[in-house]
Design brief:
With 373 residues, the chain is α/β, with parallel strands linked by helices. It contains 14 helices and 13 strands. It folds into 3 domains: 114 residues, 3-Layer(aba) Sandwich (Rossmann fold); 150 residues, Alpha-Beta Plaits; 50 residues, no CATH class.
Length: 373
């Protein structure tokens, strides 16, 4: 797979620069205009009005000393706003000197970052890029949380996925090549997950997949398949072959554990760190390394029954037929329960045999299942 420029690039993220110095605004715009769309205002009051009227702004860079409304006043309004899109905006406070007092005041007031005028372009772009990704991830996670609350009350699992040696890739081939690898990985993940899953960007080269109604076994199986698939992909750049590997951390919360989505993601990311200390190119769960041998009883069988039903309703019979074995395995516990409750004597052993379900350690496979007295 060759690395080529993405001709369908999304619109550049918008940054609001608020500074009463035209020269400072012009200097900042020159530094970031290749990577960001810029809106500029000359005082805090005008900056505040811009925020109210322009929902596309993703990051604010504000001077401290300005007429009408200074930087601290603007920051206070942002953090006190009743509009979530404004209240949660990343805000960088910029000053002419590296003043500890100003830095502490900005931090206390809720500033996300603090830089001095004259900050090198590379550093400024890196900070802005990180803040934009952070804001995007928060929105994606909030959307996922709302969806989970509406639709699911069972297990929720998180996979944190990191491209191994991503920083080294960036240093060797250039940041633009690393970004292309990141985007291609994002598209690949989005194409492979279920429709009810959500792919979120945590940082450059790092993703999270939020999977409702999926346990660790199912996620472990998916992670192993994804890791093996990535190992077979060869990317080329200037006739040089690039191979990538993944380290994956898994975390899951049952309904009675009351873990928040943020806590689950943090736990999965921590397990990625554990995997990197073990050498990388590995899947790590609560019990250590996940392998095909220990991934679990139903690991190879996890598919979405709802998705299969939708495919049947829309006539995609062949798609369902290709996953029929996995579907039988996923539904087997439910079928066993139904057979026990209604004493139907369903030939589940024969069904398992016909579906060629290996590694399913059913008690008395093929024998009638007796209902409890």
């Amino acid at each position: 797979m060759s690395i080529a420029p993405d001709n369908n690039s999304p619109q550049l993220p918008r940054v609001l620069i608020v500074d009463d110095s035209r020269m400072v605004r012009a200097s900042l715009i020159k530094q970031i205009r290749a990577n960001f769309d810029v809106r500029e205002e000359a005082d805090g009051e005008a900056g505040w009005q811009a925020l109210l009227l322009d929902p596309t702004i993703e990051v604010v860079i504000s001077d401290i000393g300005m007429p009408k409304l200074d930087g601290f006043g603007l920051l206070g309004r942002i953090r006190a706003s009743k509009l979530a899109r404004i209240q949660e905006l990343p805000v960088i406070i910029i000053s002419g000197e590296d003043e500890n007092e100003a830095r502490e005041k900005a931090k206390t007031a809720g500033a996300t970052d603090f830089i001095t005028k004259g900050t090198p372009t590379v550093e400024l772009l890196a900070r802005l890029d990180a803040l934009v990704k952070l804001a995007q991830t928060r929105r994606e996670l909030e959307k996922s949380r709302e969806q989970l609350v509406r639709n699911y009350h069972g297990d929720v699992s998180v996979m944190a996925i990191e491209i191994d040696h991503f920083v080294e890739l960036s240093e060797r081939y250039g940041h633009h090549v690393a970004q292309l690898i990141h985007r291609k990985m994002s598209k690949l993940l989005s194409a492979k997950v279920r429709k009810e899953d959500t792919v979120a960007h945590l940082a450059e080269g790092q993703f999270a997949i939020i999977s409702p109604s999926a346990d660790l076994d199912a996620c472990g199986a998916f992670a192993l398949r994804m890791r093996r698939a990535i190992e077979t992909i060869v990317m080329t750049y200037k006739e040089e072959r690039i191979r990538i590997t993944l380290t994956v951390g898994l975390a899951s919360a049952h309904g009675d554990r009351h873990m928040t989505l943020e806590e689950l993601i943090a736990l999965a990311v921590a397990r990625v760190a554990d995997g990197k200390t073990m050498g990388g190119n590995i899947v790590v769960s609560d019990s250590g390394e996940v392998t095909p041998e220990n991934v679990g009883r139903f690991s190879r069988l996890a598919v979405s029954v709802d998705h299969a039903l939708t495919q049947l309703r829309t006539g995609s019979v062949d798609e369902v037929r290709r996953r029929l074995r996995e579907l039988v395995g996923t539904m087997m516990p439910l079928l066993e329960f139904i057979d026990t409750e209604y004493r139907t004597g369903m030939p589940l052993g024969l069904l398992a045999e016909r579906a060629n379900l290996i590694n399913i350690e059913r008690t008395e496979v093929g024998a009638p299942i007796r209902a409890p007295h």
